[in-house]
Design brief:
Chain lengths: 246, 64
């Protein structure tokens, strides 16, 4: 029972605030270490020289773009199945950050593609399916904005999120299924084709992006909770509501 | 220092990537904080006149 009490927005709101702060600070620390390693300490790549350093932004953003979608679809499924309010709000809070990560992966991919492959863009399976992911996120956000009743919006967006989740394995396995311009996976459990210090920098950046996503999503979630629970008595009792100018 | 920023001739690609990442994250943080302020303001403002926050809920959802 104790864990389930946080399924109530009123209970989760203060916890989310504490968690957001912790994740934000951790993300900042990890990002500083990751950036120092990635841009300065790590040596240049033999074939790609300094251009490979885009990896420290591109890979974390691309991983988060897929991971956040799966998490969003998970909360959507829970919201549709159990009719839980907080899960629907969680799904709602993830979409904008997911869209941002997808845009970042596409942008940095283009800037990496030019010096490496000679082109900013190609309609290859990996890139095209990642572009579809961006449209899915944007479609879910637009659909929510188009529906006035939040509960109906939850259902519609939930269905769209679940339908779109088939795209994630397509992105992930595209480099194996098709002969793409995009290279295959560099990081594999136990057998990565990457130097140790490069891998360390990459992992710091991956966790920095991950923790950042958690933090910013939780802050957005708190605002969504306030918006949707604005009529509730507990909201009126909050210090930030009572106090002027904060 | 100049050598660092030159990135072995790949300065444009590196800094356009890192710059865009920094820009997007900064904009997201600003947007999220602004939205929170706006919602808090709306909730606070409506219960200055009415008792309880019920009115704010109606205002935020427009129809209730």
């Amino acid at each position: 029972m104790s864990g389930f009490k946080y399924a109530a927005p009123a209970q989760f709101y203060p916890l989310a605030g504490k968690m957001a702060l912790w994740f934000a600070v951790s993300a900042a620390v990890l990002a500083v270490i990751g950036l120092v390693i990635g841009l300065y300490v790590a040596p240049i790549d033999v074939t790609q020289k300094d251009s490979y350093r885009i990896i420290y932004i591109h890979v974390p953003a691309a991983w988060m773009s897929m991971f956040l979608y799966v998490v969003m679809a998970f909360w959507s499924a829970l919201a549709l199945g159990l009719n839980t309010r907080l899960s629907a709000m969680m799904a709602q809070s993830i979409a904008p950050t997911g869209a941002l990560m997808t845009a970042m992966a596409l942008w940095t991919g283009a800037l990496w593609g030019k010096p490496t492959w000679g082109t900013y863009w190609a309609w290859d399976a990996r890139m095209t399916s990642e572009l579809i992911l961006l449209f899915l996120y944007l479609g879910i956000i637009a659909l929510r904005n188009a529906i006035d009743d939040p509960r109906r919006a939850d259902k519609a967006c939930g269905v769209l999120a679940l339908v779109g989740v088939v795209n994630v394995p397509i992105i992930y396995y595209s480099v194996n299924w098709w002969n793409t311009l995009h290279q295959g996976a560099t990081i594999k459990a136990g057998n990565s084709s990457i130097d140790a210090i490069m891998l360390a920098g990459l992992l710091f950046m991956v966790f920095a992006f991950w923790f950042y996503s958690v933090a910013v999503t939780l802050v957005r979630l708190r605002t969504i909770i306030l918006e949707r629970e604005a009529g509730a008595a507990w909201v009126a009792q909050l210090a930030e509501v009572k106090k002027e100018g904060r | 220092m100049g050598e660092f920023f030159a990135m072995g001739g790949y300065a444009f690609f590196i800094w356009m990537s890192y710059g865009m990442a920094a820009l997007l994250i900064t904009l997201e943080i600003i947007a999220v904080r602004a939205r929170r302020k706006q919602v808090l303001h709306l909730i606070r403002h409506s219960d200055a006149h009415e008792s309880g926050a019920a009115n704010a809920g109606a205002q935020l959802k427009e129809v209730e």
